[in-house]
Recover the amino acids of this structure.
């Protein structure tokens, strides 16, 4: 059994606020509490969720308006936002005004662009997209890209999948349904023939096998983060796709296109949450591959990871909880340790893959099997 060491690195604790006490917010609070380096306050509108966090011995606060939210932000070292994507820009604005470091998990491209504009005059760090995808996959992609003298293609694939799939969709809800619908409906950034562009979600269907398991993958929105900006003019093809089990894409096209549920997202959310069960028995599949010239030779380089859930201090964390929380906690840690810029917009490409995997939280991506924190 592997020991996952996140013990304290310092004698002083930095005050942070976690916004949102759902599955990911709970996981973030648990990991950061175990480190011993942060004085944590968790804020939410739901007293039931806060009561669950309180069983960890962590301070909680019920918030009902912007004034109480501002009070939970003022004077803190950092805010970690685990609220729905439409709260990203309002919260980032409050943090920028208060001079508080800001981190979030949003996959929403428009929100990230707005936060980047805010960051131009900010005296604190504004670092969105710190989860799995966007987040870790952008760090991997940038690391692969830097290995080439001339980069031709960079393809990134990520799936949060049930370990025991059932039904025609062969899928379970493992994270935000609103975020999932965003990925399936919004335009997808890419580099095609050397030009930054957008491509339609659900298109680009491909099939592949990894470790003997058959998968399909297709375009989804938000997974690349700001990587297309970073690699503009440096690559011919850059894209991101979500991994699913075969057959998922065809059913999504029926729901979103033929039945036009892309125009009725609230109804689609209700249908998915009513019909598709959640699960903690999930697996994260990460697969990225790049090709190009290195030393005058055409070569290919790849990265893959297979991550399952774990037990932390007697609490079960699903794979999506572990990887998402580990991503944002690593970003916080690297800023706190002075290994990243200390103000303005910070993209995921600013994080070196070696630094991420060496971090006490980020090391979750480098290990397989049951972890004990």
């Amino acid at each position: 059994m592997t020991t996952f060491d996140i013990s304290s690195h310092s004698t002083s604790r930095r005050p942070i606020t976690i916004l949102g006490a759902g599955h990911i917010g709970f996981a973030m609070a648990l990991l950061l509490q175990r480190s011993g380096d942060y004085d944590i306050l968790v804020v939410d509108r739901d007293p039931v969720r806060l009561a669950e966090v309180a069983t960890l011995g962590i301070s909680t606060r019920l918030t009902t308006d912007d004034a109480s939210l501002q009070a939970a932000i003022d004077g803190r070292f950092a805010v970690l936002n685990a609220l729905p994507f439409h709260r990203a820009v309002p919260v980032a604005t409050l943090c920028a005004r208060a001079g508080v470091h800001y981190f979030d998990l949003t996959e929403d491209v428009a929100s990230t662009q707005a936060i980047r504009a805010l960051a131009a005059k900010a005296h604190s760090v504004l670092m969105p997209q710190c989860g799995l995808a966007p987040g870790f996959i952008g760090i991997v992609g940038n690391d692969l890209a830097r290995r080439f003298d001339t980069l031709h293609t960079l393809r990134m694939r990520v799936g949060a999948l049930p370990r025991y799939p059932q039904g025609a969709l062969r899928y379970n809800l493992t994270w935000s349904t609103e975020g999932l619908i965003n990925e399936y409906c919004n335009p997808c950034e890419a580099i095609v023939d050397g030009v930054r562009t957008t491509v339609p979600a659900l298109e680009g269907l491909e099939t592949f096998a990894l470790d003997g398991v058959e998968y399909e993958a297709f375009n989804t929105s938000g997974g690349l983060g700001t990587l297309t900006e970073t690699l503009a003019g440096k690559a011919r093809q850059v894209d991101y796709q979500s991994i699913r089990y075969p057959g998922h894409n065809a059913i999504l096209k029926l729901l979103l296109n033929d039945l036009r549920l892309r125009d009725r997202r609230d109804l689609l959310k209700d249908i998915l949450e009513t019909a598709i069960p959640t699960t903690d028995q999930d697996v994260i599949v990460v697969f990225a591959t790049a090709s190009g010239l290195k030393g005058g030779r055409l070569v290919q380089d790849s990265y893959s990871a297979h991550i399952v859930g774990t037990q932390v201090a007697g609490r079960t964390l699903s794979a999506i909880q572990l990887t998402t929380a580990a991503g944002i906690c690593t970003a916080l840690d690297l800023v706190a340790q002075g290994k990243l810029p200390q103000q303005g917009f910070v993209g995921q490409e600013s994080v070196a893959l070696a630094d991420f995997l060496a971090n006490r939280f980020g090391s979750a991506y480098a290990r397989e099997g049951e972890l004990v924190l």
